[in-house]
Amino acid sequence: MKLFDKIFNSNKTTQTVDLTTITRTEVLEGFSIPGMIHNIHYHFTDLQVYSDGLINCWGMVDLSMFQDKLNKGWVVPSIPDGEAISIYNLGNWNIEQGEWQHTKETLYDYVYSLIKQLNPTLENLQNYNGSDSKKVGNVNVAKHSTSTALPYHYDDPNSFFRKRINGEKFHFFYRNDDNKTYLAELSIYKSGYIEITNLPKKKIHKLEDLDALAQNGTLTTDLKIGETVLIVNLGSFKVVSGSGIDIKFKLNELVDKFNELNGSENSIAKCARIFEVYKQNPTKKLRDDLKAAYEAVPEHRRIFVGTMDTKDYEVRQVIYGDIVKKEWEEDYGYEYPYDDMPKPIDE
Predict the structure, then answer these.
(1) Among 19, 39, 191, 203, which residue is least crowded by beta carbons within 10 Å?
(2) By three-state DSSP, how is residue 51 classified?
(3) To 10 degrees, the CA torsion angle through 219, 196, 45, 236?
């Protein structure tokens, strides 16, 4: 017995030591599917469905909580006629003659089927037990942060050692060769490879193809009155009125993202950086540099060069002068609050 205890030392306590702390990152497969959020207005969004049973619907939830979001009308399967659909970074349109594919029940079943497709045995599904937050100290934080869902393709699908390449995705309308208009998803990669999905069959292009597609109206942001739009696995509607971002600005946004994927500073970050340098050392040259950087930002993205409060007002005041103050006071009806921008010291 003494020999046994000596060998296995079953009663010995573990020595207290400072161990190295580690983490592990795991990639979870998922699907991005078209969906609707009803938050005052009806917002088109990508519902992100993951193999561990989590769904991102403007916040991560488990299956039980997703069903609750459906029952409470946060996630909706349809938009009533006469209402408007808002599509972030694309536009807003009033609709009629909506034909929708799902009820609350069938949309839940569809999401469940996607999880089962990703995870056939439904092993290790997340269970939030009714709460999507946890206590860290005295603060409630999300159990899982809202993820940025990145599209991917393989560099060589037939290779045993194929490499997954991540890109970025955007929404456009695509007038397909079946004479139907789809709300499509366009994914761009650092090689200039383009995939257009949420169509009956995906389209493959190169970045340099897009100008021609825009010119002939195949790829567009501008819908015609009376045009019917299809959203795969969700439904369709007819356009009554509304407008979208100029296609030229969207194509510029794609080029900006392509440059960023290839290691360049994106136009918003560049403008914000030069603005900070200007504030520390206001000169005519830096003001000219700021003007060039600001005007290189796609027009619909320029409000993001400042904070949520200042938007691009401070930058525009430096570049264009007091006309910006007048615009503010006409738009908001009270005195311009950011009138502390320095003028060039060498002017």
Answers:
(1) 19
(2) coil
(3) 60
